[in-house]
Specification:
The chain contains 5 helices and no strands. The chain has 118 residues and is mainly alpha-helical. It has one domain. α1 runs parallel beside α3, α2 runs parallel beside α5 and α4 packs antiparallel against α5. It starts with a helix and ends with a helix. Keywords: Cell membrane, Ion channel, Ion transport, Membrane, Metal-binding, Sodium, Transmembrane, Transmembrane helix, Transport.
Amino acid sequence: MLVNFLLVGFGAGLGAILRYGISVLVKSKWKTNFPYATFFINITGSFLLGFVVSSALGPGWQLFLGTGFMGGYTTFSTFKLESMELKWKTNYRVLFSYMGLTYIFGLLAAFSGILMGV
């Protein structure tokens, strides 16, 4: 039982570190109103989680990668916060593009990951 908690915790820490690194890199390269870093992270995370849950990985790997790593890597809360910031700035074109593209491409990425993992 303790091993499962350690797998999830270690995976989450690694996922959060990668998310932070990608955010810093993307934000330093592209100065724009569109939150490309979170968009990229959540789309790649959707694909990877779809792949992990549909693959033949054992339960330990599922906990480490699926629950832990992907839980630390993807960020639904940042997506919502950035959406609200775009609303407060009345940047509706970017807001609706961001929300729509995230949902559409997130679903497509998850579906593609599931197909690749089977």
